[in-house]
Design brief:
It is an enzyme of class 3 (hydrolase). Keywords: Hydrolase, Nucleotide metabolism. Its EC number is 3.5.4.13. With 179 residues, the protein is an alpha+beta fold. The chain has one domain: Deoxyuridine 5'-Triphosphate Nucleotidohydrolase, Chain A (Distorted Sandwich), CATH 2.70.40. The protein is built from 3 helices and 11 strands. Strands 1-6-9-8 form a 4-stranded antiparallel beta sheet, with no helix packed on it. Strands 2-11-7 form a 3-stranded antiparallel beta sheet. The longest helix has 12 residues, at 167-178.
């Protein structure tokens, strides 16, 4: 089951769902609009390596916005911190942003129960596109789970700002176990 707009508001008010800052006018019939935070990061190496940390460059989106270029991956973040120990969140781009040719998530729209923090956005434009900090960029839907809940305790917990891939940490753990 998916939460309706009124149930999202009720869950925020009774603590089952955390959205900070919360603004009632961002509630949709069955989702909550999230806004683009001010920080973008891009990878600086031509070839990325899944087995090690990859260097990044940070850009702060100014008042005039920032032009995203095709063939580049931009890691952005939600302005809002979103999380729940009760519901399963899913993040999607807003259709109006998609109609401008911007992919907001590449392959990871599902959040874990127990994650609380700003969501990292994987922004990829099909053509040059100027974006602005604070613009409504995505929407999060919340689903009711069934069964015992094992809360998220992963490497991205309490994220603030965009997070580059930490896949290499998993590889490092596997190497340590194999040794």
């Amino acid at each position: 089951m998916i939460l309706t707009g009124p149930e999202i508001e009720a869950a925020v008010h009774d603590g089952r769902l955390r959205i900070a800052p919360f603004t009632a006018d961002q509630v949709n019939p069955n989702s909550y609009n999230v806004r683009l935070g001010p920080t973008l990061i891009t990878y600086t190496d031509e070839v990325l390596d899944a087995h090690r940390p990859n260097p990044t460059r940070e850009t702060i989106i100014g008042p005039g916005g920032h032009v995203l270029q095709p063939d580049e991956l931009y890691l952005g973040h939600t302005l809002e911190e979103v999380g729940s120990d009760t519901f399963v969140p899913l993040l999607f781009g807003r259709s109006s942003v998609g109609r401008l040719g911007l992919f907001v998530e590449i392959t990871a729209p599902i959040g874990d129960i127990g994650f609380h923090g700003q969501w990292t956005l994987m922004l990829t434009p099909t053509r040059p596109l100027r974006v602005y900090a604070g613009m409504k960029i995505g929407q999060i839907m919340f689903f009711v789970s069934t069964g015992p809940i094992d809360l998220y305790r992963g490497k991205y917990q309490a994220a603030t700002g965009p997070q580059s891939s930490a896949y290499w940490r998993d590889v490092t753990k596997l190497r340590a176990v194999a040794s």
